[in-house]
Write a structure and sequence with these properties.
Elements lengths: L9 H33 L8 E5 L8 E11 L2 E14 L2 E5 L11 E2 L9 E3 L4 E3 L17 E7 L2 E8 L3
Pfam family, one: Rieske
Protein name: Ubiquinol-cytochrome c reductase iron-sulfur subunit
Keywords: 2Fe-2S, Disulfide bond, Iron, Iron-sulfur, Membrane, Metal-binding, Transmembrane, Transmembrane helix
Length: 166
C-alpha cells in the first residue's frame, strides 16, 4: 500500500490524539502516587536505627528494665519516642526482650508475681513468659516476647527493632 492510498479519517485522527493525550495525563497522575507508595519500601535502614540504651557493665544475669528515647520521623513530623526493654546477660550473650505482652499488648514485669517467681508476668490477663521470653503453655499469649536486635559498640549496648522469636 502506498502512502497516498493510506488516509486517516478525521475520526481516527481524533481517537489517536485523545488516546495519546489521555494516556499522558493518566501517567502524570498515577506515577507520583506510585512513587509515594513505593518510596518508603525502597529506602534503606542504616545505622540510625540502633539506639544507645545502657553500658554493658550495668548488666547482670537478672533481667533489668531499661527505658530509652529517640527521635522518630513520620513524614514531616518529628517526635520523641520512649521504649523499654528487659535486658540481661545469658553467659556472654546479651538478651533484650520487649516488655509488650504478645496477647493484648499489656506491659509485662519480671518476677512480679509471687506465685510464679523468675518469670515475666502480665497482670492484665495472667500471661506468663520464661526468662528467655518463651510463652508458658496454658496461658493466654500464643507466641514468645519479641526480641530486640542487639549490638555492642565501645562498651555500650545498642538496640534495634524488636522482632518476633518465631
Amino acid at each position: 500500500m502506498s502512502e497516498k492510498d493510506h488516509n486517516v479519517s478525521r475520526r481516527q485522527f481524533l481517537t489517536y490524539t485523545l488516546t495519546g493525550v489521555g494516556g499522558f495525563m493518566a501517567a502524570g497522575v498515577v506515577l507520583p502516587m506510585a512513587r509515594f507508595a513505593i518510596d518508603p519500601v525502597l529506602q534503606t535502614t542504616g545505622e540510625g536505627d540502633m539506639h544507645a540504651v545502657t553500658e554493658v557493665s550495668e548488666l547482670t544475669d537478672e533481667p533489668q528494665r531499661f527505658d530509652f528515647s529517640y527521635e522518630q520521623e513520620d513524614a514531616w513530623y518529628t517526635s520523641e519516642t520512649t521504649n523499654s526493654a528487659w535486658i540481661y546477660l545469658d553467659g556472654d550473650d546479651i538478651v533484650a526482650l520487649s516488655p509488650v505482652c504478645t496477647h493484648l499488648g499489656c506491659t509485662v514485669n519480671w518476677n512480679s508475681n509471687e506465685n510464679h517467681p523468675n518469670e515475666f508476668f502480665c497482670p492484665c490477663h495472667g500471661g506468663r513468659f520464661e526468662k528467655d521470653g518463651t510463652n508458658v503453655a496454658g496461658t493466654p499469649p500464643t507466641e514468645p516476647l519479641h526480641r530486640y536486635k542487639v549490638e555492642v559498640r565501645d562498651g555500650t549496648v545498642y538496640l534495634g527493632k524488636a522482632e518476633p522469636q518465631i
